Amino acid sequence: MLASFSLARVPQSSEVVGELATYAELDASLTGCELLPRAASWSWFPGTENPSEDEAWTKSSFDVSGWATGPGPFGYGHDDLGTTIDKAAKSLYLRRTFELVDKTRYRRILLELPIDDGYIFYANGNAEDRLHAGKPEPPATFEKEASIERPLDMPPVPVVDLTPMLREGSNVLALQVLVHASDRESMGAYPRIHALYDRSVRTEVLADRAERVAAQPRLAAYLAARTHQLEGRFEEAIEGFRALLETDPASPEPWARLLECHRAADRVAELEPWFEARIAAAGATPAMLDVFAEVALLENDRSFEDFLASLPSGLSELPAEGFFADALWAARTLTAGRPLFIDCGATQDHEADGRTWSRDRFHTTGVGIALPPVGPRAVGVGDTIRMGIRAATELPPLYRVPLPSGDYEVRLHFNGRNGPEAELSSGQCVIDVLLEGARVLRDYDPVDAAGRFAIDVVHFPIHVQDDFLELDLWPKAAQVPWLAGLEVHPVSPERFRTLAEEFVRATDRGEAAALFALGRAHLAAGELEAAHAVLEEAERLPSFQPDQADVLAEVRAALLPKLMSFAAVDDLVARRGAAAESLLADEGSGPLTTYLAGRIHQEAGRIDAAIMSFEELVADGSEASEAWLRMAQCLADAGLRPEAEGLIGEAFGLGVAPTTELLNLYISLALESERDPWELVAELRELGAPDELVCVPNSDEAPRTWKFTAIEPTANVWSRPAYEDFDWETGPGSFGAGQVIGGNARTLWSGDTLYGRMTFRTSAPRMLFPHFTVAANDATDVYVNGARYARVSIPTDGYVRMPLRSLPFVEGWNTLGMHGINVRQAGIVDLGLVQPLGELYRIADALGTDGALRLNCGGGEYVGADGTVWGADRLYAWCPAYDRTSEGGVAVSGTDDDDLFRACRLFYNDTDEASYEIPLPNGRYLVRLHFAEIEDASQAVGARVFDIVLEGETVLPRFDVFAQAGASNVLTKEFAIDVTDGWFDLLLTDVDDFGFVSALEIVAESGR
């Protein structure tokens, strides 16, 4: 049936699938296809002169008939070029028209661009991306140079996300290739467009691939089982892969897929006995033994002793490489009482310095590099770990070493070189080091620490509790990080304590990892109170991790009833649920014991009993906001929602602190009772509510725990609360990679994609003009309870707000989901939800003062010549600012306020997310949009044209500021609008070049 399916939606000539001769090639073809091969023809112009004035050569109207045409790749000094350019060219210009038939077919369209040395990329006349090209500037000339020398094979491969840039039909792609001054012997550009399929075409894709591999029985069988897997029919997929492995036991892909299906079907436990029976009957292959070791150590948490004892009998020849070989080496080494010595980048074991150094093992990413013997020898270190490194070119973790739970000293060797380039300078490679997800070394520069050609050894106490040691290197400068050697030593409790104390002193008590290690040492000695004090100190640091919080919770529980606070009780109950009832074994009395009893009743669903406990605290006049909050929650759960609202109002009247949770619940109850939202805004200000009321925290200041996976979920309901994510990983946000990492990124993210979900419970589903807080680079889709609510398609430059116009939350369990795309290994993704009360206060003030909200688009607060106050620009989404106020001399006619028009807010080409969305009271308004065309390149009729849409209606189609007002002249347009849904919407669409607005006025009917 699959083989007979016809791909009628899109002509197959628009997609290049390539040869399907291996399982890996078949797998790759299921997720995407090639839309423009590397050998495709482009028009090209040598950079011996400028191809046009300004950037006209990037526009669709430009005539390229005088340019040469040739196949890619392009350049000189490389052996595999399709078109060789004369070395006299100082740069290279490439252009071609790209036809896109059906954009909805693809979830991402990516331009892969291996480059030597840099580029500026344009799509449909707009400068969209640049690499090693310096900051944006007036149009680059043919003499423009790349800012650094970049080898063609330097990972990661540069990728441009074309998805938001392309439109269906004809698109013009243009590329200026740049060369670094010290690298005039080579130039290279290898453009290729690859697309990732949307889920909606999966059935069509599977049908097409089935037809292509029908004559290859093993590939056809593999595809049939993969089809069952992708459709969530795991039992059938397991049978299919098992049957295939009877005839092809040597290939690793069917084994890997079999393990995935067993995980998804929650049947991993049956794999070990199945392996043993199969090995006894038919022997074992290296691919099979790799999966066997992974199941034993990762899935079934066997100790190394148990792993060695469980090796199937009848194994004659053991593999020399692969995960099984590595695990066997580690198990035999540690059970013999010897430490692990791993020579990073090495390809074989060897003896040096009286130690046995293993070849490179347990690396999950990166590139092993052998270094030539340049420079003096490192004092006290032989060739062992000086002549090889593992460079963290893909991110991470870099190493994942299976280890029994226990205490270890980890020693990391760094050298002052990176690859064959010996002249690495201070500051070119700066990294953070993470062990077990915790930052142990911050802003470390191997060149500064070791000096060139020398070795620096750093060591840390690490407690392993999940059977794995994870090592991550985070890049924070231009060069990729690298590691020369790794040692792992089991240590005694006494040695661990000494190391922990040294670690705390070295970090001046500023790293949670150091304090956590010291807390562990106190626990090992039975010093609970000392452990509690150190762990609470760590809890106050931003680097405190969720797994460390679990240990703190256990310490708090062990110290009850001696140690109690309302916050500690909430923490314990949150982690233990109804099982926290065991904490009441020690009879006690007092407010905290009463509160603990109430929280346990509440968690167990015994609402009446919980109300009785909390009512006792409230009646006694408790000032603890937690008691009032829990009482109100229980009243709401009992259906007494007006009473719950009144109770919180009473609490505020008695001076109970307006905490975030109390305010969130109060707002939800007030909106449910149909209170006017702007009256509620005024009341919240009187209460002293903060400018930003957090509903779901992001991980900017403190880590939030997420479940995440890099594997596309088999069902499209992965962001619903009930979705079973038992096989997903757990880690703290935010997720990041590459040079965009700041102090807030806590889980490194590798690969092209990441799915994350955070499930939370709320009794406050109604919110006051809620906004997502999103950090995203390169692209992210945001989901709530199974539905997509927003798409981020351009970098956010930190955290930005996105309005959530509908209210998809329910009382009880909800899920936030994010699907991030990482197109150049420099991604970052994080998500939260807030109610921006400060913005509402400012809007209310502006409307209350003179009935008008005025914004200086693209600029800060501005006071006009007549005293009119224009507020700082805000409440925009995905619109970059353009500001020439610092240049001074741009004169603007028709105004005394030149600086008001020397900045503007730009709107991207055909990006529906780029807009102003401003909360406003319902009513009639006069909207004034102010413009002045100050950009020299756009001072021509037709150079900048766009539609203006207000409240969903196109009020100015094909609007051209220059055509109506000329250069640097003020132009104002007025429109009367009605706001009926509580939001004012301004959108610029169908944009040629960039749309823009210089200033915005929204005047209430009563304020005209």
Q: What is the structure about, briefly put?
A:
This protein has 1008 residues and is α+β, with helices and mostly antiparallel strands.
Task: Tell me about this structure.
This protein has 1008 residues and is an alpha+beta fold. A six-stranded antiparallel sheet has the order 3-2-6-12-9-10, with no helix packed on it. Strand 9 and strand 10 form a beta hairpin. Helix 3 packs antiparallel against helix 4, helix 7 packs across helix 9 and helix 12 packs antiparallel against helix 13.
Please give the largest β-sheet: 6 strands, antiparallel
Strand order of the largest sheet: 3-2-6-12-9-10
Helical stretch count? 24
Give the helix level as a range of percent: 25-40%
Kindly state the number of beta strands. 53
Shape: globular
Q: Please identify the structural class as seen in this structure.
A: alpha+beta
Mean pLDDT: 85
Measured on Cα atoms, how large is the radius of gyration? 31 Å
SSE blueprint:
Elements: H1 23-31, E1 32-36, E2 41-46, E3 68-71, E4 74-76, E5 83-84, E6 91-100, E7 106-112, E8 115-116, E9 118-123, E10 126-131, E11 159-161, E12 169-178, E13 187-189, E14 192-197, H2 202-212, H3 217-230, H4 234-247, H5 252-264, H6 271-282, H7 286-299, H8 304-309, H9 323-335, E15 340-343, E16 350-352, E17 355-357, E18 367-370, E19 388-391, E20 399-402, E21 406-415, E22 431-435, E23 438-444, H10 446-450, E24 455-464, E25 468-475, E26 482-483, E27 485-490, H11 493-506, H12 512-524, H13 528-539, H14 546-559, H15 566-576, H16 591-603, H17 607-619, H18 625-637, H19 641-653, H20 660-672, H21 677-687, E28 693-696, E29 705-709, E30 729-732, E31 735-736, E32 747-748, E33 753-762, E34 771-777, E35 779-784, E36 787-792, E37 800-803, E38 812-821, E39 828-835, H22 837-850, E40 852-856, E41 862-863, E42 869-872, E43 876-877, E44 881-883, H23 898-901, E45 903-907, E46 915-919, E47 923-931, E48 945-950, E49 953-959, H24 961-965, E50 971-979, E51 983-992, E52 995-997, E53 999-1004
Parallel strand pairs: 4-5, 31-32, 40-42
Antiparallel strand pairs: 1-14, 2-3, 2-6, 4-13, 6-12, 7-11, 7-14, 8-13, 9-10, 9-12, 15-27, 16-17, 18-19, 19-26, 20-25, 21-24, 21-27, 22-23, 22-25, 28-39, 29-30, 29-33, 31-39, 33-38, 34-37, 34-39, 35-36, 35-38, 40-53, 41-42, 43-46, 44-45, 45-52, 46-51, 47-50, 47-53, 48-49, 48-51
Helix pairs in contact: 1-2, 3-4, 4-5, 5-7, 7-9, 11-12, 12-13, 13-14, 14-15, 15-16, 16-17, 17-18, 18-19, 19-20, 21-22
